[in-house]
Amino acid sequence: MLERKKQIEESNTENTNEESSEASKGTFGWLKWIIIAFGAMVISVGAFILVKKLLLPKYQTITVENQIAKEDKFMRQKPEMGIVYVFKDLTVNTLGSNGRRFVIVEYVIESRSKKTIDEVKSREPRLRDVFIKYLRRHTANQLLDLEFQEKSKSELIELVNTQLSTGNVDSLYYTKLIIQ
Known about the structure:
Layout: H1 2-77, E1 83-93, E2 102-111, H2 114-122, H3 124-136, H4 140-144, H5 146-163, E3 171-179
Antiparallel strand pairs: 1-2, 2-3
């Protein structure tokens, strides 16, 4: 019996040692995860501060400097206004209106060359005819469309330039556009 008691005591001691080692592993396991989570938070906060206080202000400064440089470059590219000639009050019936709808247009032609503007003046009747024929090919709704108006500027510049021999027109502007 004594031997039996010793065996029971030894097994109880072994069980207690195993339980205490398992319990210590459990607390150390949780402690390990808490330390890892705390370390990750410290690293995250450090990275946030690094980006917010050091890197972001430098990036914003560079971005602002680039924007200013682009604006300066754009402003330097804009040439001064050239010499202009005005085609006043062109009145045209629009396509498909049977005379009930008409448009009144005024164009300004710009060129850097005085010779070109002199030629435009001398060819005014021919250029008025070009404008009238161009406008008659379009309906009132087309003429109202802003995209069409921008597209028509480049088309009209091409048409005018085909009529000139001393130079080219640089720009064309609508200064009046009335549709009835």
